[in-house]
């Protein structure tokens, strides 16, 4: 009979399996703290407790490392949300508010939301990364919002509007909250802090009233 120690992976094996995740976690921390340009792969490796050579075994360069961080922390939540939206059975106004709140809870409220600030700040200096982010994050997210707005129009709940313009009215307050969180928010006194979920709910309700076909 095999002993417990025989059936469990050795510490070294577990460590090797965990390394990609540890490197992505370290990279996320540093990208959010310092930005893309200022983050060095040596720092990522050091924070993850491995050598630079080990990092390059998993990610050939800093750009590939950044893309992996985005796919893990941004693309994945967007894909999850899209799958859940398709199953929603309630009114479109309720769906719109739910979608916006879920965006905040799964992304905006996490440290990964600092990636949005990074992209806004550094996109012009790294056009290839900006293109990557647009293709894998912005376009799918826009398509998701567009589908919700079109659903409301098709079901007669929303009046006909330019959906391509209206989607920015949905996303703008969410991006504002992220920028506030990673810039002025920490510098402001408690009395000036914004309750993100209360803000989002109010904005969603204002949007639904403005879009209402009744």
TrEMBL record:
It comes from the Bacteria. InterPro entries: Homeodomain-like_sf, HTH-type_TetR-like_transc_reg, HTH_TetR, Tet_transcr_reg_TetR-rel_C_sf, TetR_C. GO terms for molecular function: DNA-binding transcription factor activity; transcription cis-regulatory region binding. Pfam families: TetR_C_11, TetR_N. Transmembrane segments: none annotated. Coiled coil: none annotated. Residues 17-77 form the HTH tetR-type domain. Keywords: DNA-binding, Transcription, Transcription regulation. Residues 40-59 bind DNA. The keyword Transcription applies. The keyword Calcium does not apply. Gene3D superfamilies: Homeodomain-like, Tetracycline Repressor, domain 2. This is TetR family transcriptional regulator. It comes from Limnohabitans planktonicus II-D5.
